[in-house]
Specification:
The complex is a heterodimer of chains A (92) and B (740). Chain A is an all-alpha fold and 92 residues long. Chain A is built from three helices and no strands. The termini of chain B are far apart. The chains are: A mainly alpha (92), B alpha+beta (740).
Amino acid sequence: MEALAVVAVLVVLCAVVALIAQPLRHGPEAVERSASARVRDLEAAREAKYQEIRDAELDARLGKLSAEDHRALDRQLRREAIEILRELDELQ
Amino acid sequence: MATFGRACLIIGLAVAVYGIAASIHGARAGRQDWVASGRRAVYALAALSATAFVVLEIAFLRSDFTFEVVASHSSTTTPLFYKMAAPWSSQEGSLLLWVLLLSVWSSLVLFLTRRRLRDVAPWATAVLLGFGAFFCALLVFLESPFDQLPVAPAEGTGLNPLLRHPSMMIHPPMLYSGYTLFAVPFAFAVGALATRRLDAEWIRSTRRFALGAWLFLGIGILLGARWSYSELGWGGYWAWDPVENASLMPWLTGTAFIHSIMIQERRGMLKTWNASLILATGILAILGTFLVRSGVLDSIHAFGASTLGVPFVLLIAFMLLGSIALVVSRRAQLRSEHRLDSLLSREAVFLGNNLVLVGLCAVVFFGTFFPLISEALTGDRASVGPPWFNRYMVPLALVLVLLSGIGPLIAWRRASAAGARRNLLGPALAGVAAAVAGAVLGAGSSPPTVLMFGLGAFVLGGVAQELWRGMRARRAMSGDGPLRALVMLVRRNRRRYGGYIVHAGMALMFIGIAASSALQDASDANLRPGQSMRVGDDLDVRYVRPTSGIVTTRDGRLEKIRFGAVLEVRRDGRRIATLEPSREFFPSSAIVAFGPVGRFFEGEATSEVGLKAGLMRDVWTAMTPDIDALRPVIDEGDEVYGKFADGDVTPQARSEALAAILVGITERYRNQPPPTTFRVIDSPMVTWLWIGALVVIGGGLIALWPAGDPAGRRVRARYAAQVARDLGTAEEREPVRSAS
């Protein structure tokens, strides 16, 4: 019984080592850095801005924002979205 | 088996330590291969802890009493369902469950973010593995579930009878899922602070885990409350017990967090607040585990010993100091990108609700740790009870419900006074009507209850109004029928409407809590059969007759003795229920000390309550028979059995003799019942607490459920086209240029 346990432990140990060592077998690989990270930040900001625009539209439809307030807010949000898109364009 | 299980934990500890080093090295050297290796260490830890857990489960299912933990927490007579759940009734098994859940959730989040957050994820991996290493070290060095006895006993001690309740078996995995899921946003917050990547991406990537943690922890708390109500025999669902409070504190700060992150996602504001909130929530989650497991504070729920106190205190101190250092050193990057546009905005209401939630947590924290504080200051360990908590919690809860009603009704950024008035009027009228109705119908003696009725109705009215208006707007756009329009509205805006439904459920819960706490009638009486007691103005309870019996397992072994009562309940003279509470006595294992018969009355005893639940009122009863009145009969039984067993008799004959004596005692109880103390509680609207809880869970699931991709893509495409159109127009470009 103990011998069986030892064999099982060795099998598990080999499997674990194989699993965690696998990425190291391909040699050094650099982490993706700053520029693409900035693109991801901007893409996330763009999605958040679109969500804000959607929410403002829903708020207007539900009567929480007057038509005039909504127009002003929507215009401002779209300006902010455009800024984000412009910066994205410059990076891509 | 034990050797294999222990080896899995030792390898798991080594893997966790390796993974921490690999992740940090990968992050610092910019080496993706080491980062990936560290991430795989988390997967390996999940596999190893799952294997160890399976080994432990098998030992419980096989009643392998060579395992110390099995011998002390199970027995051959323990039903299969409880055997399966028994591992986490023990200190060792629950710590293993912690590691298992932590590593599974960690694996899931790291798999989902494997191509994102490449700066932050390695540090988060190191933090998650740090927790894994800590708990693995406890399991390897201090509380091993794989310790073995030199000689296996013939029978185990059995599962604590108080824990033999279905909800209690699901309760710990739910709580631990909540605690371990909160470790995920905690770890990513640390990663974001360490790398100074403090935009909202780490929040977006872990938001569902925070919401899942909040939901699981909430379900765990509710299951605990339900267990307390139906099993503990004191008649309540919340006692401000330290262990209850320990789970409530991270839930409160977690609730604040899942609200305030919306502001950071949208506006880049409250970065310091959000980072501090989730760091505090992570620390409170560990504190919760510590309180349950250390025994540092007296609790009816604490099933742990005190051997783990020092390591937990060191971990909490490290987390606390590290969190403070990180936040202070990153204060420049944590500066808000925008300022609050208006105090009349949803952001401002969220900020208010955050302050109230943190205030509630501070009150609970102070009340929970008051025994330690008072001991440190005066040398005497004093504690505070429900009246102290209620003094502070009730007003704060009223403000919280008010804000949770206002929030959904006003717009983001800046609401106009006229728009706010228009949206608040209907719900406010509903609130006033409910408060007046509550006062007229009998809640007038308790102003906070009347106020809670009004505020609860205000929240419900607001949510109903939002759903109604949203459905109408949807119908106007799509021409769908009302039901389809409502379903599509919620599907398209799961986070928003899921949240509103949660608010409605919380309002129902608060109404139930307020009514049942302030307006209940409770009475204790010592009765004999035929006697009655009055509860409040209109409830009469008559002790009709006693009941008794011996409960055996499927293989015929004596499991427990049950003494019960049949009670007839009348309201205003009209019979409304027949209740059958009972008290169940489980045998002590100390046969020599108490005798073979007496030990049945010296072990654990549990209450099986008699409950007539209704939408408007619950009648709850529990009983405690005067066992001392039976003492002469019990002693006589031991004497008779002793004389019989001294003779040359077979074990079978001894068992039959013992059974006959116990049957005699139960018959004696029925024929000459001793006086019995009954506790009867007549509580209004408790059921609304449980209904509200189900609504909260439903709303939470809606908010948690991932949005359907096709719909999301269509919406995104539509807005992208709009923004693109705006980009193409000169009049839009000019202001942008001048603004920049």
